[in-house]
Amino acid sequence: MRAMQGRPNPRGPEPVGRQIEPAGRQIDPAWCQATSATVGGGDPPGVRAGETPMSAVEGRGPKRAGRGSAQDQGTQAAAGATVVYLAAPNLGERYYGRFVPRFADELARLYVRLGEALQPDDRMVVLAPYARLARLARLVPPTHLREWTMADVWVRDVAPVRTPLGWVKSRYRPSYCPTAQAEYIDERCRRWYRRLGLRPRRLDLVLDGGNVVSDGRSQVVITEQVVRDNPRWSRDSIRRLIIDKMGFWQVCLLPVEPGDPTGHADGAVLWLSPTQLAVSRLTGLHGREVRRRLREAFPKVELIEVPYEPEGTGATGIYVNALTTRRTLYVPTYGRRSDDEALRVLEEHSPRGVVPVEMGPIGAMGGSLRCLTWEMPGPPPHTGVGTRGTTERVDEEPQADSPSMPGTTGHP
Q1: pTM reported for the whole predicted model
Q2: Which of 91, 142, 237, 409 is an S-S bond match for 233, by CB 3.0 to 4.6 Å?
Q3: Which range has the top average pLDDT, 38-47, 266-275, 304-313, 373-382?
């Protein structure tokens, strides 16, 4: 949906000295005025001399649910906790062109805010390139950092999807991303989840994780982008594959919002429970058609309207792009009047505790909280990425053997 409209198309590794402009998705021009942070030496942005970085970041912590200190989160996570993964950008890959430094520092601030907002049942792990670990460790507790170079920060789109039949991995070959780039992104993610011990079922469909919004049981919402991305399959064949291979037997295919190149469903809907579905307050013919199809597909589900006030081409003002864990719903907020209404509506209907997470200007890059995160129930396994609470290197094989984008000399 429109939540992804402004996200730039990630590029493969580029020579460090070369400045490029983002291609594909367009960045909201307001991003240039949204932040003036830069990457470099000195104290982390927003931290005064003598202050503890974790306490120096504004807008931290939930307003509606108790929490432990972010410094203690690494030790509080008990068996059965949900681990929330994020990926820090590799500054050697200029896939966001001249916006990389600002984006990287804003993400670092977001890691702090999310880490402090996390409830005791949840744990955060930030996957970061080796060159970024030292700087991130000044803001984020080392227990939250793992060395791993992901090819893109929008982890949700390329990671496996949890279904009633277990983990499923579809093909990451979206129409908005050139094939060579998509293969590179997919390969880096594949190596990562194998380190976690995941062996997901393969699904022969082009389907982004951001376009799969399920209730965790039998109901799922996907947009018709899946039809566009799989021209060799008929609509009925696609529906049958989703039912047979993913285990969702109630499937709703929504129309793609006009002007949205990614066509993801997580900008339109959010399951609060199997009987309650939060829906962005879409207007016009498109909004009416979305609600009609949802009522037709899920006649016993209550549709709950949530504010929808996107800003420019970005995801600012979109609230259904939230992160759901076992007991908590982490809702993105944007410092706008509509924040209070969105939180109030979701608090009234969600069976989980609602915790706001201030996104800052990140939405201008075209994605929000759900896009940037991927959750996995249970503590990290004792092999591979995310094992010891340290920042040691855990590459699957020598860095020189890591895949590179065509036309480059290696993966930094």
Answers
A1: 0.77
A2: 237
A3: 266-275
